[in-house]
Amino acid sequence: MRRIVITGMGAVSPLGASVATSWSRLLSGHSGIRRLPDEMVGDLPAKVGGTVPSVPFWD
């Protein structure tokens, strides 16, 4: 049998760039889905989506 050790957790999602931030915003009912800027979607029919925030991983 092999053993593994988990030394930490990470999460990067449209809600935030850390486990604590993502979890807190999820429990508060926030959504990471929003209208995307026209320069991002161009002429695509879909205009909403979730993008990962450009913040440090310790937000």
From TrEMBL:
<dbReference type="InterPro" id="IPR014030">
    <property type="entry name" value="Ketoacyl_synth_N"/>
</dbReference>
<keyword id="KW-0808">Transferase</keyword>
<dbReference type="InterPro" id="IPR000794">
    <property type="entry name" value="Beta-ketoacyl_synthase"/>
</dbReference>
<protein>
    <submittedName>
        <fullName>3-oxoacyl-(Acyl-carrier-protein) synthase</fullName>
    </submittedName>
</protein>
<dbReference type="Pfam" id="PF00109">
    <property type="entry name" value="ketoacyl-synt"/>
</dbReference>
<dbReference type="InterPro" id="IPR016039">
    <property type="entry name" value="Thiolase-like"/>
</dbReference>
<feature type="domain" description="Beta-ketoacyl synthase-like N-terminal">
    <location>
        <begin position="1"/>
        <end position="54"/>
    </location>
</feature>
